[in-house]
Amino acid sequence: MSEVIATDRPPEGAADRVAEFRPSLIVGEHSLCPGCGEPVALRILLETLQELGIVERAIGVVGHGCYGSFVRIMDVDVLQCLHGRAPACATGIKRVQPAAAVFTLQGDGDMVSEGLAEVLHAAARGENITCILLNNGVFGDTGGQQTATTVLGQRTKTSLDGRDPVSHGHPIRIADIVAGIDGVGYVARGTVGTARGVARTKRMVRSALETQLAGKGFSLVEILTMCPTGWFVGAPQGPDYMEQSMARAYAPGELRVSLGDER
Ligand SMILES: Cc1ncc(C[n+]2csc(CCOP(=O)(O)OP(=O)(O)O)c2C)c(N)n1
Ligand code: SF4
Ligand SMILES: [Mg+2]
Q1: 100 with 57: CB under 8 angstroms?
Q2: Mind listing the pLDDT tens digit for each residue in 114-165?
Q3: Probe ligand 1: pick from 40, 61, 62, 64, max atoms within 8 Å of CB?
Q4: CA dist., res. 69 & res. 72, Å (int)
Q5: Which of 15, 87, 96, 177 falls between 20 and 30 A from 2, CA-CA?
Q6: pTM for this structure?
């Protein structure tokens, strides 16, 4: 007969979870717009560093975008480099400190528009670093201009009638490109528009960092993040807009796995 579970035990576990709703590595208030998806992605990243027990050897390289202000509120060693150059800076850090867990935090404007060569060459060299892309399809920080990942039809400050392939070209699916490069250990694309997406993305970030810890080469997680301000929608409409636009053009899922653990 199975043992009866006591029901008068105080709910210490649940109370603890509520009390620690904010991860201890976030040490201040962010200044981003209501409904922005980037703070959700930050939280996923920091919680994962904690859960893997690698906070003290983690070194982040942050690009330029709205997420750039996170350097003031994240209790992790970081350096901020020139626009688009984070994979090159991360390469240098990892080569002189191979025991460090090195990650980049970049936007689509930073990684795919300004720094496309950097991420491709780092991937092709098989650098043992983890790149995190926050893809919202706009240069959010400078007012919402079109980037290389803006989806067809998407309105931005520089494509007010919607992105048109004839005038503006086609969006670049960076994760798909990187997934096809030899020397790459792990590539995935997640979203933070739904609770399920958040949970799935967190597993992807964990897999990417585990790939680096196992010495399996370059890893990339593209995270689709809401930018209601740059999309001309209200904060509550951000997740739905993302599902109907970006998540259709950029299907979430794992694109390359080397540790044999498909999520
Ligand atoms: C060499 C250079 N070009 C342009 C800029 C201006 N700039 C700063 S942030 C930014 C937008 C970055 O967009 P993204 O990486 O997509 O981040 P988001 O703001 O959307 O989160 C730009 C163009 C700069 N700082 N340096
Ligand atoms: S402009 Fe967009 S990316 Fe920047 S803080 Fe506002 S919602 Fe977030
Ligand atoms: Mg952006």
Answers
A1: yes
A2: 999 999 999 999 999 999 999 999 999 999 999 999 999 999 999 999 999 9
A3: 64
A4: 6
A5: 15
A6: 0.93
